[in-house]
Design a protein that fits this description.
5-stranded mixed beta sheet, mainly alpha, 11 helices, about 325 residues
Length: about 325
């Protein structure tokens, strides 16, 4: 039986704040004529897995087996800059943009040869990881399967607008109960469409893990660890009533490329440091015990490096042998 098609994405009221466009949009080319081209250990990824964009990159990095070719620099879960950025990234931002205005945020793909930032744009970074770098072993997952680009993009829109944005509207404090109900209905319809698809197949696009699964899994993590805290208990129980969807989330949590990057404590600290919303009854109704499902997901750990200076303990991305960034 063919998989249930993903539903169209109807418009959802826009959030009042939209992050600015990425400051840096360099790309990794195919050869030396392109300037930035794939060379083992030339580049660094600067990530904090408490950020959903960084978490998607960290998972993709592991799926591709890039631990040796492209080291990871770990950043604190909660940005330490007064403007919401990471002080460790400020020199890189200022090297590429004199007197850079705005926070020095992650993710960052940097070039050690020039000491500059290549890109801060998550979709470009993910695409270049998959298309320009070769992993350390054959048979690695290909997150961007040829011909699946449109479906992956559809899943991305579903995650961003029908789940993330709808969940945020559904949990907003305010007098307009109709807006909250409409947003919750949109969220539940999206979860229902994914539930139907996952009753027929193991992964979103068929028999193997793709970027669509990475995107959805990170979205489900955020739904249960962040958005749930601002919803009432009834809404959370309705979200949890999708057994195939949450069984899928549990399976991926046990996969070493997914679960080992999940920093539950960091996500909680980052959320509490940045959120000004009111906590609701749904905060007491956890959908998954994520820690229990990642406990057995052991695998060879990626090589990771740390910026100079003091750093907090990071339980999710376990540090391996380090060398100067």
């Amino acid at each position: 039986m063919p998989a249930a098609p993903l539903p169209p994405v109807p418009p959802v009221p826009s959030l009042p704040f939209r992050p600015p466009l990425p400051s840096f949009r360099g790309r990794i080319g195919g050869d030396a004529s392109s300037g930035y081209y794939a060379v083992p250990r030339r580049y660094r990824l600067h990530l904090t897995p408490s950020c959903p964009h960084c978490l998607r990159i960290a998972i993709t990095h592991s799926l591709l087996g890039l631990e040796e070719a492209l080291p990871v620099v770990l950043l604190p879960a909660v940005p330490d800059g007064s403007d919401g950025g990471h002080s460790a990234l400020r020199p890189l931002y200022e090297a590429g943009s004199h007197r850079h205005q705005g926070p020095a945020t992650a993710p960052v793909l940097s070039d050690t040869w020039t000491g500059r930032i290549v890109s801060t744009h998550t979709p470009d970074i993910l695409s270049d990881l998959a298309r320009r770098f070769v992993g350390d072993a054959s048979g690695r997952t290909a997150p961007y399967a040829h011909g699946a680009e449109a479906e992956i993009e559809a899943v991305g829109h579903l995650c961003e607008y029908r789940i993330n944005e709808a969940a945020q509207h559904a949990g907003e404090a305010g007098p307009d109960a109709a807006v909250r109900r409409s947003a919750l209905d949109s969220l539940l319809r999206a979860l229902g469409s994914l539930e139907r698809r996952l009753t027929q197949q193991e992964y979103l696009l068929g028999g193997g893990i793709t970027a669509a699964d990475v995107w959805l899994w990170v979205t489900l993590v955020r739904l249960d660890t962040v958005h749930r805290l601002h919803l009432d208990a009834g809404a959370v129980h309705r979200m949890a009533d999708h057994p195939h969807l949450w069984a899928y989330a549990r399976r991926l949590a046990a996969h070493p490329a997914f679960g080992r990057h999940l920093d539950l404590d960091g996500i909680a600290r980052r959320h509490h440091a940045q959120c000004r919303g009111l906590e609701a009854a749904g905060a007491a109704v956890q959908i998954l015990d994520w820690a229990a499902h990642i406990a057995g997901g052991a695998a060879a750990q990626p090589r990771q490096e740390h910026p100079d200076g003091p750093r907090e303990k990071q339980p999710a991305l376990h540090p391996g042998p380090s060398s100067p960034a």
